[in-house]
TrEMBL record:
Keywords assigned: Membrane, Transmembrane, Transmembrane helix
Segments forming a coiled coil: none
Record PROSITE patterns: HTH_CROC1
GO molecular function, one term: DNA binding
NCBIfam families, A to Z: PRK10856.1
Name of this protein: Cytoskeleton protein RodZ
């Protein structure tokens, strides 16, 4: 208790800075209004200083500046007044955080940060989209290549079976034998065990077929007039078959493909039957027939000329280097 009482007594005995300023003002004959007008301060500020009321909410630097200006105007020592102010513990100068007095500056700084974040997110999205598109293109091209390679590995038996053969096929008899039979030539042999009797027509027919297909020069046919007539009939049948095959070749095919370069193809009809498939070389020509519509796949459409029922098919719409897939008729 004694310590507190001593502190209170010392505080009461010490002259406070507001009292010193008031006494100096009164001594000079100035009113508070005169001081406020001279220092360009509010009258309430001058009154608070003389009453030693220093608001903590007020910035310490401003308070000390007001006191210094007041002391200087009334002729008191500024340092002495500030020292007494410090002893009272009022308006101690402290480091305070600098604050912007412009909300616009804060708003602009905030907006710039938001814009930076927005542009960053947009750049990331664009980058991810570009990467996804590039990967999709790579996967699509890889799928086309794998499809072509798998189709190339399929057997070409159906292609061979469906390809048109330009060489005429003569079964069971040769051209030289036909000519000889037509002229009525009888071939004799030195071996008597191979001579055939013409008493039985059926035996004669089978023997002639066997002997002619083997084309053995040691075989002798002695058939008389019946043998000559039979051979003549065989020759006429072969000639008629050759004429029919020639007429069939003149018929316009459903599809005709001409190749100016190497190209892989796959052609199927409406029933799913594969008409042809595989790699075609330069100069190859295909004539295909089947049930429409046809499903056509061309690995290099730029080197192919195609006609459908005699009408040309425009393949220029398909880009070079890309696999063309379409149906005919379009």
């Amino acid at each position: 208790m004694n310590i507190k009482e001593n502190e209170e007594n010392s505080t009461e005995e010490m002259i406070r800075p507001g009292d010193m300023l008031r006494q100096a003002r009164e001594k000079l004959g100035y009113s508070q209004k005169d001081i406020a007008s001279r220092l360009r301060l509010k009258l309430s500020v001058i009154n608070n200083i003389e009453d030693n009321i220093f608001e903590e909410s007020q910035v310490a630097t401003f308070t000390r500046g007001y006191v210094c200006s007041y002391a200087k105007y009334v002729g008191l020592n500024e340092k002495e007044i500030l020292a007494k102010l410090d002893l009272l513990g009022h308006a101690q100068p402290k480091e305070q955080e600098m604050q912007s007095f412009s909300r616009r500056t804060k708003r602009e700084a905030h907006d710039s940060r938001i814009m930076g974040i927005t542009w960053g997110v947009a750049a990331i999205i664009i980058g991810l989209t570009a990467a996804w598109w590039w990967q999709s293109e790579q996967l699509e091209s890889g799928t086309d290549l794998s499809t072509v390679s798998s189709e190339l590995s399929q057997p070409l038996d159906e292609s061979i079976a469906n390809s048109d053969l330009s060489d005429p096929t003569i079964t069971g008899i040769s051209a030289s034998d036909i000519n000889a039979a037509a002229e009525g030539t009888v071939v004799t042999a030195s071996e008597p065990e191979t001579v055939l009797s013409a008493t039985n027509d059926s035996d004669l027919i089978s023997a002639v077929d066997d002997e002619v297909s083997i084309s053995n020069p040691s075989t002798v046919i002695n058939a008389g007039s019946d043998n000559d007539s039979f051979v003549a009939e065989q020759a006429s049948d072969v000639i008629s078959e050759s004429a029919e095959s020639t007429d069939d070749g003149a018929i316009v095919s459903d599809l005709k493909l001409s190749f100016a370069g190497d190209c892989w193809i796959d052609v199927r009809d409406a029933n799913g039957k594969r008409l042809d498939t595989g790699i075609k070389k330069t100069g190859d020509v295909l004539n295909l027939n089947g049930a429409a519509p046809f499903k056509v796949v061309l690995g290099a459409p730029g080197v192919v000329e195609m006609t459908y029922k005699g009408e040309p098919v425009d393949l220029s719409v398909y880009p070079t280097g890309k696999v063309a897939r379409f149906k005919l008729p379009l």
